[in-house]
Amino acid sequence: MSHRNAPLTPTGRLRLARCVVDEGWPLRRAAERFQVSHTTAARWAGRYRQLGEAGMQDRSSRPHHSPRRTPATVEQQVLRLRREHRIGPVRLAARCGIAASTAHRILVRHHLPALATLDRATGEPVRRYERSRPGELVYIDVKKLGRIPDGGGHKVLGRAAGSPNKDRRNGAGYAYLHTALDDHSRLAYTEDLPDETAATCAGFLTRAVAWFAARGVTVERVLTDNAWAYTKNTWRQTCHELGISPRWTRPWRPQTNGKVERFNRTLLDEWAYARPYRSETERREAFPQWLHSYNHHRGHTALKGQPPASRVPNLTGQYT
Fold first, then answer.
1. Which of 1, 100, 140, 153 pairs as cysteine with 93 (C-beta 3.0–4.6 A)?
2. 21-67 pLDDT, tens per residue?
3. How many other CB atoms are found less than 10 A from the CB of residue 142?
4. Which residue stretches belong to region Disordered (predicted)?
């Protein structure tokens, strides 16, 4: 690529060279006409004589010889450790005795992608997909969350107060956050329920489908993990009655349900653990506002900074 201040483009170089070589212009006259130095005019005329039009293109500035380049044995060691252990430049540098920047250049030179773009289980590049319309696929998952005892938990009272949720008799117990998340829009519907039994999950599905329908989204199929409640006839029968096709992830492959798993992480970071709460009631009361903000106002990186509501036509409440 030519420098932005370069006086000659490849087309201009060709014109200059043709004036000198084909039309017999003196070098100084050509240099004055194209406003370049005498040596520049001589260089492009010489390349034109030797290579023709192909010689007018930019050449790489990479040196012909790199005597201080990392030895091939070290490069192979870096590549082997990357394949076997899936570690980044900093850890590769420590094992191979080189600088982290050198390890990074080796990975780039061999076209190895960043670890963040690879599947953790297989090491293969992640295959990302997205359904073409809202409702075509809805993910469903349950996040188990310890309830906050009255007066606050360890975030308010400190670790010395203990963890009452671990006390089976007197503890505050757990909240089961059931979430339905649309693949295309990332629009989410969540309920705080007392358990994750088959009947509870089926009831949640019925209400979730009605919630999406009220927003103009028809749920066509649902994807869940292989939890006990989702494999029972209660779940299958409910899906059949609602006209929904049930799907299940591959065993031991939570990445298949990755969009709702990522929503759970966002939910924890931005609501559940965002600040110290003094009771479960206080935290629960803050949830509807957070979920509304997530659906209607919070920019989503996968949606180019737009909120999920932007992908659901004519969704009410987007600007409230």
1. 100
2. 999 999 999 999 999 999 999 999 999 999 999 999 988 888 888 88
3. 22
4. 53-74, 298-320
Tokens of 91: 């850890």
SS3 41: helix
Neighbour tally for 108: CB within 10 Å:
12
Beta bridge partners of 189: 180
Chain centroid to CA 10: how far?
Answer: 39
Token pair recorded at residue 226: 């292989």
- Which distant-in-sequence residues (6+ apart) come within 8 Å of 219 by Cβ? 135, 138, 208, 209, 212, 213, 242, 244
Name the pTM for this structure.
Answer: 0.65
Alpha helices in 53-157, H assignment, sequence order: 72-85, 89-96, 100-109, 154-157
Q: In this predicted structure, which of 86-100, 123-137, 250-264 has the lowest mean pLDDT?
A: 123-137
First and final C-alpha spacing in the chain: 49
CB-based contact 212:219 (threshold 8 Å) = yes
Token pair of 88, please? Answer: 């980044």
Q: Which of 302, 248, 296, 309 is nearest to 130 (CA)?
A: 302
- What is the amino acid identity at position 191? E
